[in-house]
Amino acid sequence: MLELQPTADGSFTFFSTEFSQSFHSSSGAKEEAIGKFAIPTQLADRALTYPKINIFDPCYGLGYNCAAALQAIWSANPQCPVEIMALEINPEVATAAIEQQLLADWPAPIPALLAELAATGKVQSNLLTAQLQIGDARQTIKTLQGFQADAIFLDPFSPAVCPELWTVEFLQLVANCCAPQGLLATYSCAGAVRSALLLAGFAVGDTSPIGRKAPGSIASLDPDLIPPLSTDIQGYLQTRAGIPYRDPDLIDTADRIRLRRTWEQQESNLESTSQWRKRHPNSLADPALPVDK
Ligand SMILES: C[S@@+](CC[C@H](N)C(=O)[O-])C[C@H]1O[C@@H](n2cnc3c(N)ncnc32)[C@H](O)[C@@H]1O
Asked: Which CATH number goes with the domain that contains 246?
């Protein structure tokens, strides 16, 4: 079930009773879409020089990240063509967001275009080509062969409740959809997430913290585009917190994926994260904090 929830910047989100989690940070849903996704992927700058921008949004949800992306791109260059490939397991989220007019205050023509996407699963207009595929992203992503994204929004529910979309194997498929200079943004700085991104071939850096102390992550297949992580954070990733989630056949349940990681942590010779915390009591590399997404 989807429960409507206000956030601190005045925009609304949903709370998912299935995942016991909000779709956005309580500090601001709109702020999160802009600050954690549209700005770090440098869409406004790229709109000035790219002939067309390709976006991959594997957890489309209410569509806020795509709305923020379109706003950033068309504010900078109103003539920039955009292609969006979006995936989502629950079609009710996007349609409920439109029904409740949650996208209504983004500038025109964004609300109308995203309403069409939610209703029909596709848009073909002069500046926007978009597809919203319904199903488990671990399977639907396989239909995207050849798509090369300039921006990727990695925005599942948190790793603890939705590990399926944070595994090494899923992120390897995401990497296949990333252009050589594409940028992937995520709100998470969890060790398991950053290790999985690194194993999938991405270079990983910090984004500026938005609405909380911990940063998000920015990633690219081109390491020259990413400021390196501090040695402190690199050390954190070498603890058991840096052991990633795995889903070898991309079909396991969340419970099984969590259990597999717990077993791997128990068998590991890596330093325990609690010991590491004692040595680094104030480190922001430690994302034990963000329960709130
Ligand atoms: C945090 S919300 C995303 C919010 C969204 N990015 C936005 O801007 O509104 C996570 C989304 O992932 C979807 N989801 C969960 N498991 C999924 C799966 N296996 N495949 C695709 N989508 C999934 C949920 O239904 C939810 O809409």
From this structure: 3.40.50.150
Q: Measured in Å, how far apart are the chain's first and last C-alpha atoms?
A: 18
DSSP string, 33-64: IIIIIITTTTHHHHHHH-SSEEEEESS-TTSH
Structural domain count, the chain:
1
In this structure, are residues 23 and 16 in contact, taking their beta carbons and an 8 Å threshold? Answer: yes
Give the residue whose CA is nearest to atom 10 of ligand 1: 156
Tell me the percentage of the chain whose pLDDT exceeds 70: 97
- pLDDT bin (cut points 50, 70, 90) of residue 209 is confident
Query: Is residue 198 in some structural domain?
Result: yes
Domain span at 157: 27-279
Pocket test for ligand 1, best of 1, 14, 59, 110 (most atoms within 8 A of CB): 59
Tell me, what's the pLDDT at 289?
44
Report residue 212's pLDDT band, with 50, 70 and 90 as the boundaries. Answer: confident
Residues 219 and 255: their CA atoms lie apart, in Å, by 27
Report residues whose beta carbon is within 6 angstroms of any ligand 1 atom. Answer: 23, 33, 59, 61-65, 87-90, 93, 136-138, 155-157, 162, 164-165
